[in-house]
Amino acid sequence: MPAQPLSRVKSKAGIKWGPDALKRYPDLCCIVMDTISLGSQIEYNWSVIIVDLLRAEPRAGMAMYEALAGGEARRAALMAASRVSLPKNDYLLVQAVEKALAPTRRNRNNFAHQIWGISDEVPDALMLINPAALREFEVGVATTNFEMSRGRKAKMFPDLDRASVMVWKKRDLEEARSSTIDALSILATLTGALNQSYPVPGISAQARRQILRWPQVAQALQHSNKKKTPPTPPQPRGARRPAKPK
User: How far apart are CA 197 and CA 177, in angstroms?
Assistant: First the structure.
């Protein structure tokens, strides 16, 4: 079962957040750091693929890739390089790998950039808080303080939106780490296949079979192929279907 929002686990639970939150459960902290580290290795492997795709000008290609701000821009550049450098079937496989790895990328980014907390009412678990919800909460507190100072009248302080707080228990964190290990393995296979293909970049049949053993990649590729197949036009009423050749 994936991580659940606190509003579903325990809607009235109190939350503490800050740099000391992870120290409460050092074993869970280690799993979080493992997942972030593995995710960083995945991002590095994608940059290696750019070098393999742009063989004539690898230094210039890497400079342009690193100059792009943000992960979305880098992924768009990577897909553009794949589209012009690879045969169509290989490009579609790279695209399917990128889509299949999206959940592990989101986990890594959330673990690294969101706010960790704990709750005494939900022991042996870490709370991951969306910073946007936390900022909204702080603005509400400041606004309430200002209004009370002007009106000299007590008011209720706003509460943090617990639907924006995800509860990560040990099994959830272990599943996230395991899926990231699988993702890195698949990407390493793709990186090795492109690195060993000369003189033209490509993916060998053996590497392709190995990559497609991962169900998420196979499903993403199947979905991509379905989108590219034009729908059969509807037949008018009374029209005869063309006879099949004998």
Answer: 31
CA gap 194, 110 in Å, rounded:
30
Predicted TM-score of the model (pTM): 0.81
d(CA 63, CA 61): 5
Strand segments (E) across 32-100: none
Question: CA torsion, points 184, 190, 193, 194, in degrees to nearest 10?
Answer: -120
What does residue 236 show for φ and ψ, rounded to 5 degrees?
-65, 155
Cβ(168)–Cβ(29) below 8 Å: no
d(CA 144, CA 201): 61
Pairing, β 16-17 against β 4-5: unpaired
Q: pLDDT grade, residue 145 (50/70/90)?
A: confident
Which residue is associated with the tokens 């701000």?
69
State the DSSP string of 137-183: HHHHHHHHHHHHHHHT---PPP---GGGEEEEEHHHHHHHHHHHHHH
